[in-house]
Write a structure and sequence with these properties.
Pfam families: ABC2_membrane_6 (PF06182). The chain is an all-alpha fold and 271 residues long. It has eleven helices and two strands; from the N terminus they run ααββααααααααα. It has one domain. It is globular and about 65 Å long. The mean pLDDT is 82.
Length: 271
């Protein structure tokens, strides 16, 4: 990887932000679609609890489950990748050519463009989802103390970078598979389940939970959401952050190896 020419990558960041706003209709449709899962989850769990004879389901009260669902969806929207298809297109159509002959790192280009895109989406998503929550009259009974909020804000950048590194690693499959979109879609679905973006991980049985504990995905969504809910605090936050950093280093290292192997296969056709 090349040294960081900050002015160049600042422009990459700006490019990502402008790209997010370029197609305004598509942009707002995507943002609105991000709010729909909140509505679906609220109605789903409302139906489940109404038909349950117990006040708790999977050791969650109704308000706790609704709160978790909302926080998990918000967090998953914040950390979502989506650039893997762009990378697949770059490999397939030969758009990587310019990064071979110019003094700019494709990795850093993707990182800063990704962060620029996120900066816009996060700002608008916070407003839209706050409105949705207000309309649904959802009361979060989690005690969102300032310590939990600060802990969440510290951890979420690591979750963002960890998810980026995971998908950047997976995107290298484009060097070996011509049409990798199906693989990306399947992986995204499975990763969503394993990360806790759909349901809390602790609703699964013990064997499944033990398997998921050995995977990195829970540290993308489930871990930061539990910080915000107050279930994880103190030394457990530091421990979780250490695991996040370890997984981040692992995926960055693996992605470097995969991309080096992939570039040896790259035929630089097109562009």
């Amino acid at each position: 990887m090349l040294p960081l020419p900050w002015k160049t990558y600042a422009k990459c960041f700006k490019m990502g932000a402008l790209s997010a706003m370029e197609y305004r209709v598509d942009f707002f449709i995507r943002l609105f679609s991000g709010a729909l899962p909140i509505v679906i989850q609220c109605y789903l769990w409302t139906s489940i609890f109404r038909n349950s004879s117990s006040a708790t389901v999977f050791d969650y009260t109704y308000s706790q489950m609704i709160a978790y669902s909302i926080l998990a969806i918000l967090t998953s929207t914040v950390v979502a990748a989506g650039f893997e298809r762009e990378i697949a297109t770059d490999v397939k159509e030969g758009s990587l050519n310019k990064f071979i002959v110019q003094p700019i790192s494709y990795f850093y280009f993707r990182v800063f463009k990704f962060l620029g895109d996120k900066s816009i989406r996060i700002a608008v998503l916070v407003v839209i989802n706050a409105i949705v929550i207000a309309i649904l009259h959802v009361t979060l009974d989690f005690q969102l103390m300032w310590q939990a909020v600060i802990g969440y804000l510290i951890v979420i950048p690591l979750s963002l970078l960890l998810n980026f590194s995971i998908y950047y690693c997976i995107s290298a499959i484009s060097f070996w598979v011509i049409e990798a979109w199906g693989i990306f879609a399947t992986f995204t679905l499975l990763a969503g389940i394993a990360s806790g973006s759909m349901f809390p991980i602790d609703i699964f049985n013990a064997p499944v939970q033990r398997v998921l504990e050995w995977l990195p995905f829970q540290y993308v969504i489930y871990f930061p959401v539990n910080i915000l809910s107050g279930k994880v605090s103190g030394i457990s936050i530091m421990s979780g952050m250490s695991i996040q950093l370890i997984w981040l280093v692992v995926f960055l290292f693996v992605s470097k190896l995969l991309w080096q192997a992939g570039m040896r296969r790259y035929e630089a056709v097109g562009g």
